[in-house]
Design brief:
mainly alpha, 23 helices, 0% strand
Length: 437
């Protein structure tokens, strides 16, 4: 009974923060002391609790460094004009006849480069949404295509915080996971492209009147030289170089590019890497402002505190009854279906993607002991289900950023298809090979 009250209090604090607009970090801090109190009540010492928390945080120490580098990477690309060049060029190739497909693919491409759904939504998402609305395309479908595209890279980009988190909690290798992501996501991606192509053919009727090249020229020199940071990143990723070295090399090249192409000094650029980019023009700033190491501090705190929960849960056996119930369901209904349902529940309760990943892995690691398969399952469930929850920050923030209706999550077909496709594949395998687990 005490376990139910403790978890219930945690969920109540999450929803309170959600509905009052308070940072979810406060709910997590409250939950940390709540769970520590439960552990003390169960007879565990402060030393034992501290050791469990430290061991959990140690598992994600590498991802904290990567996240801080991602913040610096996005700021350097904004300052050098890399993102501006990519967005302005992309805006010129969208036509009314394939507006939805173009929106999906362009957002998918940028998110795969920069690894952040929020950053993609704030740049390419805003642009493609504006273009689609200007062409007379339904905001419902345009918003869904942009949201789905933004999470393509969030799911499987080497510089994605989500992909890094999955590696950390499962103890798997990044590039092996990416290979699995591409393999398991190919059919859902293809089906999403077909749907957006056919639906989009019946919509946009006129060309949008938005000249991004003229807008960005107020702030940047839109030269092909600004693509150097992106080329370096892609080249090193294809060579499977260490991801931290890859990002450092891309940041350094963007730094040098900004020095030569922009009227920015080295001290100012260092400040931008830390605190984020701020454009001199308000119009450009609406698309380009952001990034920086400081932008990742709260994310790092959320992940660190969330990871301590896993250590406390393991120490106290607090979720053991729930784990036993999940194990029973997994044996009856199928492993992937059970992981999907668990991810849906944890995403709905936690209101964010990171905690959903950590809790889903904690609850389901016994029914899926294969770490590589677990990593793939998390990427195809918790990562993509979280943005489909209307009250989750994973979906609410990008949708609000691009100015789409909340109902557009229904049109984010790629995100729906990933778990559905996984369930269908599992059902076919279980029917063909009844002994499969």
């Amino acid at each position: 009974m005490l376990e139910v009250l403790t978890v219930g209090s945690f969920c109540a604090s999450l929803f309170y923060c959600l509905f009052t607009g308070t940072s979810i970090l406060y709910a997590l801090i409250f939950a940390f002391f709540l769970f520590c109190g439960y552990a003390l009540y169960r007879g565990f010492s402060l030393q034992e609790i501290g050791r469990a928390c430290r061991q959990s945080i140690a598992k994600i120490s590498n991802i904290i460094i990567v996240m801080l580098l991602i913040g610096a990477l996005t700021a350097s690309w904004r300052a050098s004009g890399t993102i501006a060049y990519l967005v302005s060029y992309a805006s010129e190739i969208i036509s009314p006849s394939w507006s939805l497909l173009g929106t999906f693919i362009l957002n998918a491409a940028l998110s795969s480069l920069i690894g952040t759904s929020f950053g993609t939504a704030a740049t390419m998402g805003v642009v493609t949404m504006s273009l689609c609305v200007g062409m007379g395309v339904s905001p419902f479908w345009a918003g869904g295509a942009a949201l789905a595209g933004a999470y393509v890279g969030d799911r499987c980009s080497p510089v994605s915080t989500s992909a890094q988190l999955v590696c950390a909690v499962t103890g798997t290798e990044l590039y092996k996971n990416i290979k699995n992501m591409l393999r398991t996501g190919f059919i859902p991606f293809l089906l999403a492209c077909l749907i957006y192509f056919f639906v989009g053919n019946g919509q946009g009727a006129q060309a949008a009147n938005i000249d991004l090249t003229k807008l960005f020229s107020q702030e940047y020199i839109l030269s092909a030289w600004t693509l150097i940071p992106a080329i370096i990143l892609l080249t090193m990723v294809m060579l499977k170089a260490d991801i931290k070295l890859t990002m450092i090399a891309s940041i350094a090249s963007a730094f040098v590019t900004a020095l030569f192409l922009r009227d920015l000094g080295s001290i100012e650029l260092c400040k931008i890497l830390f605190s984020g980019y701020q454009a001199s023009s308000p119009e450009v700033g609406r698309l380009m402002n952001g990034g920086g190491v400081i932008s990742m501090i709260q994310v790092c705190c959320i992940i660190s505190i969330s990871c301590t929960f896993a250590g406390i849960f393991e120490l106290t056996g607090m979720l053991r009854r729930l784990e036993n119930g999940i194990a029973y369901l997994g044996a009856k209904a199928g492993v992937f279906l059970t992981i999907t349902l668990t991810a849906l529940a944890t995403a709905a309760l936690s209101c964010n993607q990171m905690l959903a990943v950590i809790l889903t892995e904690q609850l389901c690691n016994k029914i899926q002991p294969d770490k590589i398969k677990m990593a793939a399952s998390l990427e195809n469930t918790a990562i993509v289900i979280a943005p489909l929850i209307p009250w989750s920050i994973a979906g609410a923030v990008p949708v609000a950023t691009i100015g789409a209706p909340e109902s557009c999550v229904v049109a984010a077909v790629y995100l729906w298809m990933l778990p559905i496709w996984g369930i269908l594949v599992e059902k076919v395998l279980r029917k063909t090979y009844p002994t499969i687990s």
